[in-house]
Specification:
The protein is an alpha/beta fold. The chain contains eight helices and ten strands. It binds fructose -6-phosphate (F6R).
């Protein structure tokens, strides 16, 4: 693609906010608008610390009677392999805790890779097909790893297309050990949507906060597009919005 054509494709928007509270409110408002405008939306959801405040705001909007999740369908980005469903570190548990148990979503409409399925090939193909059967994702919510991962698409030599199993990198295991009693308890593998699965979403919204994310935000969105920094591919998405606080944007 030539430089002029690329310029037309890249319409990344950055919403700069003061702090985590403003980030959570503004990002929740984007999801609010999506749900109100299309009550049967398919939402791609993320776990991790970044979207917790956003989910709190969505629950509050629901409690005020302003949101209805009854026709919403969801597909989560990823899940650890090998954790039982009731393990409080599984992403299924996380989603129930922060959103699903607190709003009127129908559990039949919730999709998360099944980390208890030891047959990786079957599970990844099932999940990719399930997303296809939903008609694709209208809005995908993302966080970003310190190493530039999105979902659990870790830095590598190519952009993985579809849902697949990954070996988590040392840096991800290190970053995620804060949620576990001991680093030895952090799972070593995960099922994750592929970069192709994510890029097919109609709209993508990333939330990023804190100084720790500043170097990778600069590299991913002001550097070259490379699978070594998986999030950099988002520069090419036609409807990508980054909601980030001043600390995360401090190096640009
Ligand atoms: C979570 C996910 C990950 C996180 C990323 C950032 O479902 O797919 O890519 O978004 O690791 O995590 P936090 O928000 O904890 O910094």
């Amino acid at each position: 693609m030539g430089a002029e054509a690329l310029k037309e494709v890249c319409i990344m928007k950055i919403i700069r906010v003061k702090d985590y509270e403003e980030l959570s409110r503004k990002a929740a408002n984007i999801l609010f608008a999506q749900i109100v405008l299309k009550p049967e939306s398919v939402l791609g959801l993320a776990t991790g610390s970044s979207p917790i405040g956003l989910y709190e705001h969505l629950v509050e909007m629901y409690n005020h009677g302003d949101l209805d999740f009854s026709n919403i369908k969801t597909a989560n980005l990823d899940e650890y392999v090998g954790l039982s469903l009731d393990n409080d570190q599984s992403y299924k548990y996380f989603m129930n805790e922060h959103l699903f148990s607190k709003v009127n979503i129908d559990s039949k409409n919730v999709n998360i890779p099944d980390g208890t399925n030891p047959d990786a090939e079957a599970e990844c193909s099932r999940y990719e097909k399930a997303i296809g059967a939903l008609g694709g994702i209208d809005l995908q919510l993302l966080g970003i790893g310190n190493n530039g991962h999105i979902g659990f698409n870790e830095p590598g030599d190519f952009f993985p297309k579809e849902t697949h199993i990954v070996d988590l990198t040392e840096s991800t295991i290190e970053a995620n050990k804060r949620f576990f009693e001991d680093i030895s308890m952090v799972p070593r593998q995960a099922y994750t949507m592929g970069i192709g699965t994510i890029m097919k979403a109609g709209k993508i919204v990333m939330v990023a906060n804190g100084e720790k994310k500043a170097p990778i935000i600069k590299e991913a969105f002001y550097g070259k597009i490379t699978p070594q920094v998986p999030a950099s591919i988002l520069q090419l998405h036609p409807d990508f919005t980054l909601v980030a606080d001043e600390a995360a944007l401090s190096q640009i």
